[in-house]
UniProtKB/TrEMBL annotation:
Alphabetic keyword roster: DNA-binding, Transcription, Transcription regulation
GO biological process, one term: response to amino acid
PROSITE patterns assigned: HTH_ASNC_2
Source organism (scientific name): Phytohabitans suffuscus
Positions of the HTH asnC-type domain: 3-64
Protein name: AsnC family transcriptional regulator
GO MF annotation, one: sequence-specific DNA binding
Top-level taxon: Bacteria
């Protein structure tokens, strides 16, 4: 699917505020509200826009402790096996296969160190996990939503 500059700006507007009206977005990108709706519908149908969600401040709900955990897995553990296991943990913010020594990197968020330790223990209890290495987040330096760069 071809994404032009107007699509890029519509996407950027939705990332900034998914509740913006088509009229508001149209004013920003010089299109009518129906034209914006048609483009958003096309982007959704093509899978470019997968959904709309609320972005919650973790501190507002009391989950201020974060860690990145390197997972080291046994034998031929597949990414699908890792994904199934980590999706069961509500503390998992994201999980990724990575290059290097570790097999995967898991981003955890918890209320405090005790909660984080509990989540780590549940992660380590997975039958394929042989070891982990954790890094606690001290502060967030950049925390931005995904925005597709404009083509050059």
């Amino acid at each position: 699917m071809q994404i032009d500059d107007v699509d890029q700006r519509i996407i950027a507007s939705l990332v900034a505020d998914a509740r913006a009206s088509y009229a508001d977005i149209g004013a920003r990108v010089s299109l009518s509200a129906p034209a914006v709706k048609r483009r958003v519908d096309r982007l959704r149908s093509a899978g470019v826009i997968r959904g709309f969600t609320a972005v919650i401040d973790p501190a507002a709900v009391g989950w201020t402790t974060e860690a990145f955990v390197e997972l080291f897995c046994a034998g031929r553990t597949t990414p699908a096996q890792i994904a199934v296991a980590v999706r069961r943990l509500p503390e998992v913010v994201g999980a990724y296969t990575v290059s290097g020594e570790a097999d995967a990197l898991v981003h955890l968020r918890a209320a405090d160190i005790a909660h984080l330790e509990d989540a780590l223990e549940r992660l380590r209890a997975q039958p394929f996990v042989t070891s982990t290495r954790s890094t606690i987040v001290l502060s967030r330096l950049v925390d931005s939503p995904t925005v597709v760069a404009a083509p050059s």
